[in-house]
Each structure stands twice: as C-alpha cells, then as structure tokens.
Amino acid sequence: MIQIITHTQNIPGETLIWQQLLEEGADSILVRKPGWQETDYEQLLSQADPSCYPRLMIAEHAVLCERYGLQGLHFGEAARGNITEKDISSYQQMGWSLSTGIHSAETLQVASNNWNNLLLSPVFDSISKKGYTAAFNESFRLNKNGFKGNVLALGGVNDSTACKARRMLFDGIALLGAIWEKPEKAVKEFCRIRDIWRKIN
Known about the structure:
8 helices
C-alpha cells in the first residue's frame, strides 16, 4: 500500500497532481493541512476531479467526508483522544476507512482494530521536517501484535529507504517530503518509489 500525504501548504495545481498520482497507482491520498478550517478544505476539494474522491482521506472533517463521498477520516494523536466509541461506530456504519498516527511500536499493543491504517513515524529521518530524526534503527522488524489493519511507514520514505521499510515488515509506506519537495517532479518521483516498492513486494 502506498499513501500520499498532502503538503501542509497550498500547492499550485495540487488537485491535478493528486489525480495524476492516483492514476499512477497511489492507493490513497490523505488531505491534511494543519491549521486549515473546513471552508479551506472544501475550497480545495471542489477543485479536484470527482473521480478522486473515493480515494481521498481527510483529516478530521466528517462533514466533508460525507458530503464528498471520501474514502475516510484520519485523526492525529491529539484528536484521537477525543473520539468516542459512538463516533467510531457511526463512521464505520458509513463505510469509512479510519486511520491515525502513532509514534511508537508499543502503541500497537493497545491499538484498536477499529483503525484500518496506522501511520508509524518517524521511521527514517524526516525530509519535510528538518531535525525530526528516525525513531527506529534498520534492524527494527514490525510486530503487529494481532493488529489486523495496515501499518504504514511514515517519515523519510523515498527511493532509497522504501526497500528498508519493506525489510522492516511494514504493510505500506506513506509519502510526504519525497513527493512535495519538488512538486513539479512529484509524479516522476512517485513512480520511482512505486516501482521500487512493487519490485520487492
């Protein structure tokens, strides 16, 4: 599984790049813009081709998830603490995929199978956050401890570390800095990483 996480800022022509990335084989795109309000997200979503909606996750905006028929919701660590079992049950009844971020392998021991995807970070030195260094060494091997969903490696994943993430037994990778460092080359860079990931699949 390969997920793209959007740049934190607005990128010119971004929604067209989303479409191209999905056409090239990205499994989903997490639309996450910290600090943005619902209206900001909606303006961006309205620019996207509707064919993209079923493969877009969105950060914490259930109203927009329903309105646009998106794939599901992502919750950061802080927001996750405010979600009730009733909320989760409601989202599941809607057929939404649910994901959240975690920062230690130990969290997997208590991870609820209500989550479809867990994003574990930082696996490698971050590309987008300078000074945000790897929390795992290359000898790390993922033990899902009975967790039934996907665990994706996030943080510093690029064409040289994707193969290491596979050896660490991750179910997939989440790409941010490698894709958006040079937006004009986003699709080309994705294809390079995709081919490496598939080759070792």
